[in-house]
Amino acid sequence: MTSVKDFRVERPATATELGRGAFVFTDDYSVFDWGKMPDDIPNKGASLCAMGAYNFELLEDAGVPTHYEGVISGGEVVPLTEVAGPPREMAIELTQVPDLPHDGREYDYDAYYADAGENHLIPLEIVFRNTVPVGSSLRSRADPTEFGLGHSEWPQRVVDLPEPVVEFSTKLEASDRYLARSETDRLAGSVDVDRLEALALEVNEIVTERASEVGLVHEDGKIETFYYDGEVRVADVVGTFDENRFSVAGQEVSKEVIRQYHKRTQPEWVEAVTEAKERARAEDVADWKSRCEREPEPLPGHVVDAARDLYTAGTNAYVGRELFDAPPLDTAVETIQSL
Asked: What is the rounded CA–CA span in Å between residue 178 and residue 176?
């Protein structure tokens, strides 16, 4: 189970065979790696399911292998085009995810792959960036001159990158961390890093093209992958407002809206999270959350309503169907801008 969707196993994966299961999308949300927050956003789960299914079907049409099988409606697995209303369950193939042993913050990837065989999750997140928004973590790790940009410092606005940038981070560690290319190669097991990068760029191109068709700017996103029978397949969920960042005329249309709202209205909690992660790192322990001295507060009702409309209106626009009773996207964006 993840912090925003439940995971149902119908047939477990084995060393030689894929399993079968489903994602059940909830209305929970998570920011700053906290896990389930104290409230939820109505219809968020269904919007992620619909948008993710739409993108998986785009990938399959382009010949990109994935674990997606369809959405579940009335107990049947069908394409998104065959459902009348927004789905909440997605049928998927399952791979093995062995335990990743650790001693403090030292993780044993050799033991992970010893148990993985030829059917396993690749324990990496692959991040692609087309722009560098103000909230992007890339700003704290790199200088704009590294990307051929004519700035000595990052400007306080969205910066377009000349070419997409691909980065790799850990997936199964208690706190995700970005990796140097050499460490990525070691953590990727038998799969070549260039192969993973090429797959991420292909996914990025497909999502970027669809976003452009409906008036959205695709800023960045990520994929997860697994290895089976010599093939690398795209896993988890792709191209949603939680996994990726989109914008309209400079206004974020993604979970980043909620992250930035917390930064503005609950700065003490955000700072406490940062301090707890730093303390855990200094103490060489994986559990940072128990060291956090503050809890997040629920969102005001009008913010929840605005976030709901943003997710649902954005999904309607992206999939080209009125799956949700939602305002036009430009109206939802105007409401967000007034928060």
From this structure: 7
Task: Show the domain range for 82.
Answer: 5-337
Chain position carrying tokens 């609950």: 266
**pLDDT, one tens digit for every residue, the chain (339 residues):** 456 899 999 999 999 999 999 999 999 999 998 999 999 999 999 999 999 999 999 999 999 999 999 999 999 999 999 999 999 999 999 999 999 999 988 999 999 999 998 999 999 999 999 999 777 889 989 999 999 898 889 998 889 999 999 999 999 998 789 999 999 999 999 999 999 999 999 999 999 999 999 999 999 999 999 999 999 999 999 999 999 999 998 898 999 899 999 999 999 999 999 999 999 989 988 889 999 999 999 999 999 999 999 999 999 999 999 999 999 999 999 999 998
Instruction: State whether residue 119 is helix, strand or coil.
Output: strand
Nearest to 297 by CA among 39, 18, 115: 39
* CATH number, residue 305: 3.30.470.20
According to DSSP, the residues that pair with 93 across neighbouring strands are 20
User: Tell me, what DSSP letter sits at residue 152?
Assistant: S
63 secondary structure, DSSP code: T
Q: Are 68 and 106 a contacting pair, CB within 8 Å?
A: no
**Angle value at C-alpha 26, between 23 and 28, nearest 5 degrees:** 130
Side chain identity at residue 249, one-letter code: A
Statement: the pTM of the whole predicted model exceeds 0.85: yes
Pairing of strands 19-25, 5-11: antiparallel
When divided into structural domains, the chain yields a total of 1
Phi then psi for 102, rounded to 5 degrees?
-150, 155
At 71, list the tokens: 């959405």
Element (H, E) at 257: helix 256-265
Which residues lie closer than 8 Å to 266 by C-beta, 6 or more apart? 296, 297
